[in-house]
């Protein structure tokens, strides 16, 4: 048995399960707190963890219900924040922040690339409208922590984005001071059999594609990608530059240099911001 929170014991084999961890919060806090932030995102079906965090259990985070005692137990991360009744829902019998409130929180408090990835994914699923959601930050008092980060995240949110990797790549591009690319561009136009590019600049016929590990690592897949990009260049005049996870994540500015070469511009940063 393990005791993830003082006074609550769970089977060690189940201690990392997200639903079990949410139930731990419920048992430890009763009606005094609501599951929030990263764990709430997971309960709604969206993983808030970066690739290097995949083996880590989700943090036991909650928001104290205003007017009630603030839970204080070892292992529990309790936040104090405004929490209207409309921001609370129930999943598996556990009080959790709604999907809208969860996005407002993760956009502020997750690392920038994960905040955007989660926001993009939830918007892509049709569960939130980032434009409408952005106005909700006005409900908070002035000078709240990470509010500017949250607003920027939702301003950059693109519901057409189809993967976390595309979100990370787009943020790298924007953070480096390059023009914001448009996601999911059809070439020559949207129709059966047409090409669709992850992101790019239509007026320049330049594009960036994120080649994920799952679909682009075999030699057959790479040959197909090369043939596709050759056809885009030869038939339609599009230059497409592929990037991989190892180039997008980490400290080396490979993506920024590639985009700069593609656009004929210099990155406006000397080192990465995340």
Automatic annotation (TrEMBL):
Pfam families linked: AbiEi_1
AbiEi antitoxin C-terminal domain: residues covered: 18-154
InterPro entries, per database record: AbiEi_C (IPR018547)
Protein name: AbiEi antitoxin C-terminal domain-containing protein
């Amino acid at each position: 048995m393990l005791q993830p929170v003082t006074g609550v014991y769970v089977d060690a084999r189940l201690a990392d399960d997200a639903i079990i961890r949410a139930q731990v919060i419920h048992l430890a806090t009763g009606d005094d707190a609501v599951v929030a932030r990263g764990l709430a995102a997971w309960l709604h079906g969206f993983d808030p963890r970066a690739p290097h965090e995949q083996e880590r259990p989700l943090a036991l985070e909650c928001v104290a219900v205003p007017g009630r005692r603030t839970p204080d137990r070892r292992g529990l991360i309790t936040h104090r924040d405004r929490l209207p009744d409309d921001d609370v829902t129930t999943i598996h019998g556990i009080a959790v922040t709604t999907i809208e409130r969860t996005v407002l929180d993760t956009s502020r408090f997750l690392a920038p690339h994960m905040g955007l990835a989660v926001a993009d994914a939830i918007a892509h699923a049709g569960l939130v409208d980032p434009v409408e959601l952005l106005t909700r930050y006005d409900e908070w008092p002035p000078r709240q922590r990470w509010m500017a980060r949250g607003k920027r995240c939702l301003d950059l949110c693109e519901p057409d984005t189809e993967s976390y990797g595309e979100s990370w790549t787009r943020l790298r591009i924007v953070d480096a001071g390059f023009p914001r690319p448009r996601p999911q561009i059809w070439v020559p136009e949207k129709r059966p059999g047409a090409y669709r590019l992850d992101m790019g600049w239509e007026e320049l016929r330049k594009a960036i594609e994120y080649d994920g590990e799952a679909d682009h690592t075999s030699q057959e897949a790479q040959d197909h990608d090369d043939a596709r990009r050759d056809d885009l260049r030869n038939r339609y005049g599009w230059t497409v530059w592929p990037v991989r996870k190892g180039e997008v994540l980490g400290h080396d500015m490979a993506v920024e240099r590639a985009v700069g070469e593609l656009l004929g511009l210099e990155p406006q940063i000397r080192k990465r911001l995340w």
